[in-house]
């Protein structure tokens, strides 16, 4: 009898390039030998058009059941329109830690070799929550929410991650010289937690200086501990250091539920052309394979990915190659 475990995963293909990169990644995942069952849902504008809801209730039930989500990017309108479903998902399932490893891939020429840093971004608070109101005509107020609970929780996550993954140093990134209360509280919490981890070096950098230091000498950084909006912006900066947004993965983690997605957005400028690079989502899927305790598959995909990049022949356009999204996935499968 076939007793192989079936891994049931909630899938959000997303929009823009989302369906293209998720299809490519699913094709690779299904070639690993792990058996998957996918529960797929639309969200955002498409879901609203179909069901009158931006986040369908069936999706929430599926996530509560499976506890693991693979997600493509979802567009959020600029200015007006509906609230970000990405932010809503992170808050609804208390996915308080956003882990974003940024590391050079072999064979990708960049100005910055030997980058190996991790952004640990607080995922539920800060000004990123988008709580704003017009208090008088022409005057708008935005809330930057910072709590001791969430700041301590994310600092502890960063230090525990450093300890278990043999990382040596954490820099808390802030603007507490200006936002003395909000970023000041974030720093206070990080300092307190740091005292419980004497083997891990702890430093602090003001965000503007951190940006310059990242561009001059990113190799000095190990883990960057940030509040929500700073982490969002620094992620794209760091993606640029190693070759672009097509490459960088992320995991949104809580106590029970995890959502794996690329750092990039829905890239409407290249959607529907089979040219998007699925590497960011594929590296997120590798994080997912570790998370669901499929280490052999995780290592197989990782090795195949590195092989394809080292060979440098089967790359997508953003990596100066000529392969399409699906052809790149097929090259990974062939390398496995
Ligand atoms: P974006 O990340 O979608 O694109 C920025 C640039 O990077 C574009 O030139 C794009 O072509 C390129 N790019 C991104 N991903 C790529 C890939 N896989 N392969 C090759 N090139 C890639 O950022 P944007 O244009 O600012 O945002 C577009 C939409 O995505 C917005 O609605 C935004 O709200 C949304 N967004 C969603 C998420 C998410 O779902 N987690 C994250 C970021 C942005």
Name the bound molecules.
nicotinamide-adenine-dinucleotide
**Which class best fits the helix and strand makeup?**
alpha/beta
Quote the beta fraction.
15-25%
How would a textbook summarize the main sheet?
A: 10 strands, mixed
The backbone outline, from C-alpha atoms, is: globular
Structural write-up:
InterPro entries: IsoCit/isopropylmalate_DH_CS (IPR019818), IsoPropMal-DH-like_dom (IPR024084). This is Isocitrate/isopropylmalate dehydrogenase family protein. Belongs to the isocitrate and isopropylmalate dehydrogenases family. With 336 residues, the chain is an alpha/beta fold. The protein has two domains: 1-100 and 244-336, 3-Layer(aba) Sandwich (Isopropylmalate Dehydrogenase); 111-242, Isopropylmalate Dehydrogenase (3-Layer(aba) Sandwich), CATH 3.40.718. Helix content is 40%, strand content 20%. It is built from eleven helices and twelve strands. It has a ten-stranded mixed β-sheet, with helices on both faces. Strands 6-7 form a two-stranded antiparallel ribbon. Helix 7 runs parallel beside helix 8. It starts with 5 loop residues before the first strand and ends with a helix. The mean pLDDT is 96. The protein binds nicotinamide-adenine-dinucleotide (NAD). Nicotinamide-adenine-dinucleotide (NAD) is lined by residues 17, 21, 73-76, 86, 245-246, 261, 264-270, 276-277, 280, 318.
Key words describing this protein structure:
336 residues; alpha/beta; Isopropylmalate Dehydrogenase; 11 helices; globular; binds nicotinamide-adenine-dinucleotide; IsoPropMal-DH-like_dom; magnesium ion binding; isocitrate dehydrogenase (NAD+) activity; Isocitrate/isopropylmalate dehydrogenase family protein; oxidoreductase
């Amino acid at each position: 009898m076939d007793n192989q475990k079936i891994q049931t995963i909630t899938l959000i293909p997303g929009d823009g390039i989302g369906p293209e990169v998720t299809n490519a990644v699913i094709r690779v995942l299904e070639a690993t030998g792990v058996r998957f069952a996918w529960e797929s849902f639309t969200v955002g504008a498409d879901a609203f058009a179909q069901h009158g809801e931006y986040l369908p209730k069936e999706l929430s039930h599926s996530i509560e059941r499976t506890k693991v989500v693979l997600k493509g990017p979802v567009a959020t309108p600029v200015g007006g329109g509906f609230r970000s479903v990405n932010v809503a998902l992170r808050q609804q399932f208390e996915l308080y830690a956003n882990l974003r490893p940024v590391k050079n891939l072999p064979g990708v020429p960049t100005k910055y070799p030997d980058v190996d840093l991790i952004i640990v971004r607080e995922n539920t608070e800060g000004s990123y929550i988008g709580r704003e109101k017009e208090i008088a005509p022409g005057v708008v107020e935005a809330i930057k929410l910072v709590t001791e609970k969430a700041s301590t929780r994310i600092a502890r996550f960063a230090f525990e991650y450093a300890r278990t993954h043999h990382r040596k140093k954490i820099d808390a990134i802030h603007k507490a010289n200006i936002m003395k209360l909000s970023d000041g509280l974030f720093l206070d919490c990080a300092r307190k937690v740091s005292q419980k981890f004497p083997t891990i070096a702890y430093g602090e950098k003001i965000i503007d200086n951190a940006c310059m230091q990242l561009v001059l000498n990113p190799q000095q950084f190990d883990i960057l501990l940030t509040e929500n909006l700073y982490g969002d912006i620094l992620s794209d900066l760091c993606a640029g250091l190693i070759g672009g947004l097509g490459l960088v993965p992320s995991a949104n983690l809580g106590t029970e539920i995890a959502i794996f997605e690329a750092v990039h957005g829905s890239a409407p400028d290249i959607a529907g052309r089979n040219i998007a690079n699925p590497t960011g989502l594929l590296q997120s899927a590798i994080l997912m394979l570790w998370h669901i305790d499929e280490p052999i598959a995780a290592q197989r995909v990782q090795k195949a990915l590195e092989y394809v990049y080292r060979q440098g022949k089967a790359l997508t356009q953003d990596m100066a190659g000529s392969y399409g999204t699906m052809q790149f996935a097929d090259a990974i499968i062939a390398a496995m």
